[in-house]
Write a structure and sequence with these properties.
Length: about 110
């Protein structure tokens, strides 16, 4: 599913506000959770879709290995795959635009 592209500056502002709020919740949760709780969450979720919880299937797309969810069609990139795409993306492509967004969104 392709989400509707924000149509104007106001939509983009609210999308960014949501992302910022979720990032803040993530940081707070990382401080709050005990290591044993983090370990339990990892054991429960590893290899499962973050969207629907189904067991994901490894697939190779070009040079990139990813996990694909046969239930909802989503996909997951681990850090190695993400770093590969980030270093090989051509500028001025859709992927390039997404990567630029992530770069600006992940600034501390
Ligand atoms: Zn899924």
């Amino acid at each position: 599913m392709i989400e509707r592209k924000p149509s104007n500056t106001e939509d983009e502002y609210f999308a960014r506000e949501d992302a910022e709020r979720i990032r803040k919740l993530h940081a707070e949760e990382q401080v709050r959770l005990k290591q044993s709780e983090k370990d339990a969450l990892k054991k429960l979720h590893t290899g499962r879709c973050s969207n629907c919880g189904a067991l994901m299937v490894p697939e190779k797309v070009g040079d990139v290995r990813l996990l694909h969810c046969p239930a909802c069609g989503g996909a997951f990139l681990d850090k190695t795959a993400w770093d590969y795409i980030r270093t090989h993306a051509e500028p001025h492509t859709v992927m390039g635009a997404i990567l630029n967004w992530f770069k600006s969104a992940n600034k501390p």
